Amino acid sequence: MSAGSLRARVRAEMTEEIKATARRHLATDGANLSLRAVARDMGMVSSALYRYFPSRDALLTALILDAYNALGTAAEAGDTAVTDRTALRARWLSICHAVRAWALANPSEYALLFGSPVPEYHAPEATTAAASRTPLTLITVLKDSVDAGFSTPTDHLPPTVHADMARLRAGTAPGIPEELLARGSMGWIQLFGAVSFELFGQLNNVVEAREAYFEYQMRHVATTIGIPE
Amino acid sequence: MSAGSLRARVRAEMTEEIKATARRHLATDGANLSLRAVARDMGMVSSALYRYFPSRDALLTALILDAYNALGTAAEAGDTAVTDRTALRARWLSICHAVRAWALANPSEYALLFGSPVPEYHAPEATTAAASRTPLTLITVLKDSVDAGFSTPTDHLPPTVHADMARLRAGTAPGIPEELLARGSMGWIQLFGAVSFELFGQLNNVVEAREAYFEYQMRHVATTIGIPE
DNA sequence: TCTACTTGGAGAGCACTGCTCTTTCCCGAG
DNA sequence: CTCGGGAAAGAGCAGTGCTCTCCAAGTAGA
Question: What pLDDT shows up at residue A1?
């Protein structure tokens, strides 16, 4: 059996190496990386690569899945890094900083996840689970905030938004009021917007104190959501 | 002289037609549209197209410039559509809705502006002026808010952020307190994040009431900035 | 009006791309 | 020890951005 799994192991290693090489190319060529160049880098011919990935899109899908999971892992690590689990504000901010740090360390992968959608490419269902890990980490803090008895916002939500939030809660986080979820989603959007603005060059020649301005924003968001100091 | 300008006029028309065709291709092929396909669509050979644009990047730059200006025009129109110039909240919200409407109507051009940066492509200086039209429109509302005597936020800004905002103010909007500019920039980021999330598919299967949730967010942002009802 | 010059279009060609198909080879299960 | 299947190689197809040469047509000066 060790012989039988050898083939499989080699194949798995090969697949990993292809992805690693592709990730390297991602940094310079973006989403339109070249299969042939990846193969060339590995000393193999391009057609051999099709034994591992049926198409370029399949390779991209694998990279996207890995990236979502890497970001999710980083976000969760940011959360658990705060040993005092009752320090909700610190946890929220730690997650935000973890997301930004991961994005700055892996800009091309972040762009693959949150940048312009690749034309003619449709993400398979499998990615959505990985994609929701990061927002779920944020929602966990909201849930702990509710359990700790902190007061929640009392916005008036339009009925349709209320329904959306109720549906979101049903799938993920029982017990969180719709109003809090709505504000939490806003915070997730602000986090994404801030990181994207910085990474995509929209802050150039405007804001130099990137870290400080990010911190300022996220503190403000945390306050808005109702996470006390 | 009418003969001399004929050539120029034909050339201008040709340039416009190329851009229009390219814009159409942008919708299906995204940023990696094909010069040859554009030429084919116009019944000409690809090399002829190089008489008008020295490279594919140059064509993209022209499209980007046009898109920034179109968005800026839409934003300004959203502002001036509010006849009561003292209705600052209405003006702010009208600008936000105009930006979203333009983005929904021109998704691929929006992606070109605010999506993943094109690898190896660096925007020339000329685009920055067009790019700032939309945020400047928002800042105008902030300025009118100050002039109207509305109270401004009293955040404590880190010194570096304070300096950034002072520099931003110096170039654009004298008289606006740094704290207000910082919050206004947050609002611009939230607007961008909300539109991008919706357009790039991040809201799929989560929020269905797109319009209503957007409105909710922007109202909240306006309140946060300190624009009274 | 005739000529000299500039300009725009056409076509061939180069190096590259994703992908398919066929051929070869070699590992490992029976 | 045989032989089936997985993996690699290579040729080939249609497409790409871009360059170069060639030619027709429009423009300006005498």
Answer: 37
- Strand C positions within 7 A of protein Cβ atoms: 7-13, 16-22, 27-29
Task: State whether the Cα torsion A47-A51-A57-A63 is positive or negative.
Answer: negative
- pTM (two decimals): 0.95
Chain B, nearest residue to A225 by Cα: B220
Instruction: Please list every residue in chain A whose beta carbon sits closer than 8 Å to the beta carbon of residue B189.
Output: 190, 193-194, 197, 217
CB contact under 8 A, B190 and A192: no
**CA-to-CA distance for A67 and A63, rounded, in angstroms?**
6
Q: Using the CB atom, is residue A47 less than 7 Å from strand C?
A: yes
Q: Name which of B114, B186, B208 is nearest A164 (Cβ-Cβ).
A: B208
For A142, A176, A228, B146, the CA distances from A151, given in Å and listed in that order, are 11, 11, 9, 33
Indicate if the pLDDT at residue B98 is higher than 70.
yes
pLDDT tens digit sequence for B144-164? 999 999 888 888 899 999 999
Nucleotide nearest to B39 (CA to C1'): C9
ipTM for this prediction? 0.94
Q: Give pLDDT tens digits for A54-83.
A: 999 999 999 999 999 999 999 999 999 999
Q: Long-range contact list for A188-191, CB < 8 A, 24+ apart? A: A188/A135, A188/A138, A189/B190, A189/B193, A189/B194, A189/B197, A189/B217, A190/A217, A190/A218, A190/A221, A190/B186, A190/B189, A190/B190, A190/B193, A191/A96, A191/A99, A191/A100, A191/A218, A191/A221
A-chain CB neighbours of B114 within 8 Å are 196, 200, 202
Question: Mean pLDDT over all residues of chain B?
Answer: 94
List the nucleotides on chain D closer than 7 A to a protein CB. Answer: 6-12, 15-21, 26-28
pLDDT value at B40 more than 50: yes
